[in-house]
Amino acid sequence: MPEEDLVDIKFRLYDGSDIGPFRYSATSTVDTLKQRVVSDWPKGKTIVPKAVSEVKLISSGKILENDKTVGQCKVPFGDASGGVIIMHVVVQPSLAKTKTEKKVDDSPRKIVCSCSIL
Q1: Is there a smaller number of Cβ atoms within 10 Å at the N or the C end of the chain?
Q2: Measured CA angle at 13 (ends 8, 74), to 5 deg
Q3: Structure confidence at residue 110 (pLDDT)
Q4: Could you tell me the pTM of the whole model?
């Protein structure tokens, strides 16, 4: 594979730490990048993605779509010319999981007022 078809990408996490850089071919998909992020997620972080679907990659202010390739996303990356591209990682737990994890008390409540009248 020609050297110019390879791109160095580093993933910046919520706390400013990085995963990578890693070298990817222009035909690698965004989904492949997300799988790498999940598998190489550092131990001991307070926020941890449980699945690839919880990870969003952002480059140049744009959320990257899973089916796009690194080559297709190069335009938003700008002219990296041998530099490392930094993608920001956002972990967004699925809505279904967050709803079931939160316990909401829907029971009626009594309002007790201890008012004194003079």
Answers
A1: C
A2: 35
A3: 55
A4: 0.70
User: Residue 76 — pLDDT band, cuts 50, 70, 90?
Assistant: very low
Residue 8 CB partners (closer than 8 Å, separation 6+)? 20, 21, 22, 23, 24, 80, 83, 84, 85
The DSSP H or E segment spanning 6 is strand 6-12
Exposed e or buried b per residue across 64-84, where buried means at least 16 C-beta atoms within 10 angstroms of its C-beta: beeeebbeebeeebeeeeeee
* DSSP string computed for 61-100: TEEPPTT-BTTTTHHHH---TTSEEEEEEEE---HHHHHH
Chain centre distance of CA 7 = 19
**Which pair of structure tokens corresponds to residue 72?**
């297709």
**pLDDT band for position 71 (50/70/90)?**
confident
Q: For residues 55 and 12, give the distance between their C-alpha atoms in angstroms, rounded to a whole number.
A: 12
CB within 8 Å of 37: residues ≥ 6 apart? 11, 19, 49, 55, 57, 89
